[in-house]
Write a structure and sequence with these properties.
The protein has one domain: 2-enoyl-CoA Hydratase, Chain A, domain 1 (Alpha-Beta Complex), CATH 3.90.226. By secondary structure, it is α/β, with parallel strands linked by helices. It contains ten helices and ten strands. Strand 1 and strand 2 form a beta hairpin. The radius of gyration is 18 Å and the shape is globular. The strands form two sheets. Strands 1-2-3-4-5-7-10 form a seven-stranded mixed beta sheet, sandwiched between helices. Bound molecules: zinc ion.
Length: about 280
Amino acid sequence: MSLGDHDFSTVTYREQSAGVVRVAMNRPEARNAQNIQMTYDLNDAFDRANSDDEVKVIILSGEGPHFSSGHDMRSGPEQRDLLHGVGTYQNYTLPGAEGAMAVEEEIYLQMCRRWRNIPKPMIAEVQGACIAGGLMLAWVCDLIIASDDARFRDLVVGWGIPGVEYFAHPWELGHRKAREMLYTGDWVSAEEAHRVGMVNHVVPREELSTFTEEMANKIAEKPLFGLKMTKEAINQTLDAQGQWTAMQSVFTMHTLAHTHWRELTGAGLYTGEGAETRPGQK
Ligand code: ZN
């Protein structure tokens, strides 16, 4: 069975080669900022690839000069109307911390967990800026291939928040570099990210897609069940080390920090209110 190419509203889906699918974020005018529509489009595209018996490897990329500028904080009420429970949290409009926590559980923490556990290898192909929520998209993938102009940043500590919702920083960068990244909000270059093990390879920008596709093709030569079991073995190892337990724990601090910030500044989530109090999404 082969499901063929398909365009979602904010994401394209292409059969790249035998056993390899490319899912591309397609909001280059917004530097591929992830709004709620894109969250569900990515989920549908990944499900499509996962359900296709002939697909073994999924490439996740972004159209335009940048991989992703993170979550689209300009998303208004019309985006909230798109919310529906792929995860288990619901009741998104309840007041106080309750509704806001449910939204972030659904579209960030549980969705990222779901994507990280898709039992087929996923490769993030990253160029240009990869900021905050963009990190989560790269981190849920099995491999990260970066171009030499790629750079990574999480600046939400400036907003009183201990990192993005999917708190993989210490696992991805080691705790020293993770502290520096979070405390300073500075960029981490592709070269630095490679040095600490967050990125598998750094290649010239013009070779990025070719390099990624060649690696995907090499992986696709392996039997699917072997790939699934290997991925599961590594994920289970990380979970046995406490990765998922730690992430769930940190998410409660994340929610506390949002609530604290809202109490101090009036800035709500995904409502447009108080947007001027947020640090720039550069
Ligand atoms: Zn948040």
